[in-house]
Amino acid sequence: MGASAKRPILACEGLGVSYFTRAGEVPAVVGFDLAIARGEAVGLVGESGCGKSTVALAVMRYLGRAGRIVAGSIRFDGRELTTMSERELRRIRGSRISMVYQEPMASLNPSMTVGRQLVEVPRYHAGAGRAEARERALDILARVGLPDTRRIFSAYPHELSGGQQQRVVIAMALLADPALLLLDEPTTALDVTVEAGIVDLIRGVAERFGTAILYISHNLGLIRETCDRVAVMYAGQVVEEGPVTNVFAGMRHPYARGLFAAIPLPDSDRRARPLRPIPGQLPLPHERPGGCFFGPRCTHYRQGTCDREQRMRPLDADPGHRVRCARQAEIAWERESRGPEPRTAEGPGPVVLEVHRLRKEYELDGGLFAALTGRDGTRRIAANEGLDLVAREGETLAIVGESGCGKSTFAKVLVGLEPATAGRITFEGREIAGAPVETRPPEIVAHLQMIFQNPSETLNPSHAVGFQIARVVRKFGAARNRAQVRRRVYELLDLVKLPRAFFRRRPRQLSGGQKQRIGIARAFAGDPRLVVADEPVSALDVSVQAAITGLLTDIQRRRRTTLLFISHDLSLVHYLADRVAVMYLGRIVEQGPTGAVFAPPYHPYTEALLSAVPLADPGLVKRRILLEGELPSALDPPAGCPFHTRCPRRIGSVCEEREPPLRRFDGDHRILCHLPAEELARGRPVIRRRHPREPSHIPLR
Amino acid sequence: MAVRGRRDRSEALPLLAAALRSLGVLRESPVAMAGAAILLFWLAMAVLAPLLPLADPNLPLEPLRPPLSVSADGTATFWLGTDIKGRDVLSRLIWGARRVLVWAGLATLAAYLVGIAMGLVAGYRGGWWDEILSFVANLLLSFPVMVLYIVVITRIGASPLNIVLAVTFASAPAIMRIVRGLVLDLRTRDYVLAARARGEGALWIMLVELLPNARGPLLVDACLRMGYTTIALATLGFLGLGLPPPDPDWGAMIAETQPMGAFAGHAMVFPALAVSSLVLGFNLLADGLREISLRD
Predict the structure, then answer these.
(1) What is the structure's pLDDT at A342?
(2) In a domain, B62, yes or no
(3) In this structure, what DSSP letter does residue A658 have?
(4) Is A155 part of any domain?
């Protein structure tokens, strides 16, 4: 082994990247240092705007016209990338360094078969012959865990599912046998059970392909499960760096700690660990303070120490673990109190909402052609099938499931944006299943409101914030004259903890979290009895997420509003729900009190979902259950139990032929499964606290 | 408090407020600035026409005088000469600008009102509304525009109001399709769902939630369409189907002089230049606005 083997494959030193916009220079990355050894997987974690993607783009030299490397060096295998000519770069990109992006369809050409796109790689970079290239392409498809490689080879990208597409993209990236693979949020667009499979693949990449990885993600849990080392970024700098086990076992930088405290964990004891948002906001690049960039938001800020420029320093006890904090040795994290959140455990009140055998079908008609030819081209898709639910006053009922499970359809049917096809919905003693919102009495509309998912869409960009809340206040008849309306709007702004000056702000002047707060204010304007929140925080950064969920549950508790919380995030659901319903392909497969759903007996699907949750806490261990196959299309749902195509515990033909029976357990815990109740009850917990002697690393499959 | 009141009223007129705000934005694009400068010139001419020291545009003086010639009695200069009937070309040009801007503006506005209404209903309501409105629009769009103008005007006669009707008839379908396309995209936004979920009526959703968010592309299109309408008015005038004489009309001015072409080139060239520059102004402004909107 010569010097080249010891040399890091990628070394960034003092890297500075700026974007030059109309407003001037925006320093996105400043003084960035990172080294990646051969075959090592390094995670780069941080919130949006911290510069993590810019680092990857700088390594690829894909910064576009506006971006420029203004300082420092990037050495790849000893060669300087920052000054390399475009021609030399082309020889390195795609062959020695490959990149995988968040959206697989953005990397695949929709008009070419997967095979043709794959074959190009060895033909272009290695000058391989046609037959050899084809062989290597088929081989790599199998090695990234794709079934039926011949079919996938000749398929067009749109014929594959999202998970398969991302596997193809990773296969393409690995095909040239690169020394470095850059992964930029490769699983963010995927469902958790699909993500779990990709994560498993990525964990094996370094070992099986000898490729070094730079894994960029906002998800601490994913980084912990896939990487050897981690670097936490804040405001364009690395603030903490070290081996994954050491860093996660004892984070030292106040920001990294804050990030960790803001994410919910599917832990057994939720009240012991309240989510704590990081105060303040990420400073804009040109407004970064002198000294420590995190200073203004840090509870441990001290004049004289923190207002000087901060360098990365190794920990005394662990030289591999470095932190950009002058006070890291002084802060006694262990003594930080983590007292239980005082949560008044009032019992649930009277029933507010009752859903009985609800069914929602969509018609896909054959269009004008079918109508003219007299053929009945109508196909029906059941988005919701036989939903039974009860929600009580003041409780939080969560609905979890992956995309396409029908949870958003259910929300729309409840609020009356879509009429139900069959079944009953009783709200405040009234039957509203078939009534679109336009025909509902105003008090029902005011009492059943919704919070939407996408912060960028939830407010009308054309109108001032005050105008939009005032309209709701007027609509629900809470106030009549101008002064009254204005006072009420101010009250609502107070309620969601926004300054009253926001009355005049336009939506584009607001951050995502602030927009979501306005959405909450709007939903609570008419004193609702039931609020449906459809993924209200899934588009937000974790530290903001914690603040918004905290606010939402706080208002809900004080007003004894029923909250129907729709989410794909099991950790979050576990954290805030009183009861949980798990949906799969339009059906509720399991429901019950949160504690009961997250503990055995499980529905096999719930078990797999839980196992797919990436864990950031090294104190937790989980059983790994990987689902085979892909989510079936709602157009053609499987007969019998809808989950039988992927179920690891199916018991035979009964699952494929007959609808599963409802098994009842203590405390109104219900599971829709053919497995006998005793068999289900024998399951072991998926996630549990690690025994102090147990190793914390996660073994490969 | 007074300031607050004014702000609130401007919220009620979001389109106007947006138009005013976008004027300030023009500084970012030299192309838009050039277009706006040309348009402002013609606008100023049109507005100031009664105040300028101009001869009566319909009064016959001395026929076919060349540009810069002085009248026989030496009291007046014909800066751009006179036409075959002896009327002052400069005066007719400036009064003509007033006329074309007023009627092209009114015609475009009418086309927009109809087109927006059709597009909003077709896009938001969908279903049979969309089928029927789109069918009508496609039917009208399948005729060549000029043929449509000529057919309409010859049927109902050439009066200013009828020209507004003809332009509306020919332009509204295209506007409808633009609005419909924008609405199809906008109506799936969460804020529209939020409005529906609080029980807003279709009219509110179409006018307050959807229309203001379609303003960017519509503003660009409105500029282009003003240009088209200017050309249409000039063409109709040239064909003798335009705004009725004797008041000046750029198209008619060209047509009147045409038989005498060689002798009265100036009486033809200046109105032609006027039409071109006005249309150029609208097109440059539209290009600039599009450039600005893409940059953000």
Answers:
(1) 47
(2) no
(3) S
(4) no
